[in-house]
Amino acid sequence: MGTTDTEAQPRRLWRWLRAALILVGLLLIIGTLVLRGVLAGMEASLPDVLSVADYRATAKQVSRVYSQDGVVIGEFFKERRTVIPGDRIPTIMKQAAVAAEDGDFYDHAGLDYLGIVRAMWVNLRDGKFSQGASTITQQVARSFYLTQEKSLKRKLKEALLAMHLERHLSKDELLELYLNQIYFGHGRYGVAEAARFYLGKSVGELDAADAALLMSMVPAPVRRNPIVAPVRATQNRDRVLERMKREGYIDAKAERRGRGRVVPSEPQAMSEIAAHRWAVDLVRRRLKDALGGERLKTAGLRIYTSVDREAQAAVNQALVEHLGTIEASPQAAVVLMSARTREILAISGGKDFGASSFNRAVQARRQAGSIFKPFVYGAGFTHGRFSPTTTYPNRVISYRGASGPWRPRNSNGEHDGSQVSVAEALKRSLNVIAVQALQKVGVAKMTDFARRAGVRSPIPSNLTAALGSAEVTPIEMANAYATLADDGGFADPVVIRRVEDPSGRVVHAERSERRQAVERKVATQLTRLLRSAVTDGTGRRGQVRGVGVAGKTGTTNQRGDAWFVGYTTGPARLVAAVWVGHDDGRSIHGTGGSAAAPIFSSAMSAYVLEPQDEVVEETAHAP
């Protein structure tokens, strides 16, 4: 009896279904084998896991420059980051990170599978990678090892790396890497820099509201930070606070207190960087040579300097007050230092660092003019060729020059032929006497004296050197006069007291050994003569009320450079060199006495706090 069509149809359907199931099974097996092979290959190529110790040693960190009193006055960086060990990051900060970014962080092995399914559904619905499901571990993997590219291959690598990291690092170590590495906007990386910039706090001072605010920025730091969008930042912070309460990290009272806090809408990091850019520029120049530019910008160094914020404020204010009163608005440079220690207390290399970073205090070589005359007379005193009472005729004399006769003249045009003493000539800055004195002592001896005092620039080997034809920098002239102020003791100028690495180890320091370079008697004689130049001579506008000052003006041909270099003669022995002029050498329509000396006077008057002590001390040291 044959089989009917009705009975045969189910059997055929079953055979087709069985074949289909076998085919699907085979495809699944093949697909699984292929996937396992791909994953095995990808896993074999996974990089070695960066240890926390290695990260601390190699992460790019900001180096900071500190004033004498420990205030930050400058920074060097590629990335503004300060690495904070995990045990110094407050628990509330870690809890805020978990609540905001990965509620199951302590429970999963690197991946949030429910989140992945949810994100896949959204991405399929939208037809693009519009949502992710990244755990903190995945974010660490992406930050250290991958790009921000949105592709299936990159997400697969990220997942493998996350599981790889979980096998090699603890949860606390992952959080340390995460909280030090993430970007918070405005060039700030890691919680330490974010806390300092947005809140004006150290990491250890953060509370729940602070931590919630910082973590609320992470998904989109450029758009979510409180400086750009304070209202949105407040709303996002409050959402994180609510999550922290839901996770049991804070109670309702702490949440309400946090919600009531007004977010700061301006940068809170207290900084004096703008006021000290020239000093920091000098530090950079010196450390670039000593340690290398790359290390300076990435090693997280702490650079302690001799810069005195009060001295710098006094210099800055003096420049603002006086430069505007000089015709044609010239540039200016000032170096203020201690003659006793040779530490640089303040420095300015120009009117506006933002407009021009050319540091005229250390880079610009300009003709010295009459500020060079003390070295002529000092050489004569040293070698016994003349004394302060020796006289020369105040008249024009013709000398043989390289291009014909040379007839130097006094700037005041007075040449009455009278006999004028060396002391009077220095006080009145008479050119014709200085040239005669140099001819008497010899250029070689004068050059040797200037070198011992601290002049390092080339000095012309002819009589024009008496009138300051040498091109010098303000910093070297300040140091040369400091030798006279310090009773003839020479030392190199210093600005860097010490440099520490993040562990506190000293890696560099500037040392300056003092040696007796000029006879004490000669230095004392010159100080007395330079006092007269300030009290009764061309430097009268360099006086400081109640304080003894010795100094000398200088003005070059066509008034292209105006100088005043001087020092207080009491126990502080403060020295300052002031130069005023145009970079292109145009006339400033002023002299050292009218353009530079008032800047010296104003800066010193503002900085010297106890002038009565200086008067007593100066009298005691008078020769």
Description:
This protein is α+β, with helices and mostly antiparallel strands and 623 residues long. Among the domains are: 81-259, Penicillin binding protein transpeptidase fold (Orthogonal Bundle); 315-384 and 441-501 and 513-621, DD-peptidase/beta-lactamase superfamily (Beta-lactamase). 46% of the residues lie in helices and 13% in strands. The protein is built from 23 helices and 20 strands. The strands form 7 sheets. The chain has a 5-stranded mixed sheet with strand order 2-1-5-15-16. Strands 7-6-20-19-18 form a 5-stranded antiparallel sheet, with helices on both faces. The protein has a two-stranded parallel sheet with strand order 3-4. β19 and β20 (574-581) form a beta hairpin. The radius of gyration is 37 Å and the shape is elongated. The model is unreliable at 32-36 and 610-623 (pLDDT under 50).
Summarize the structure.
The chain is an alpha+beta fold and 623 residues long.
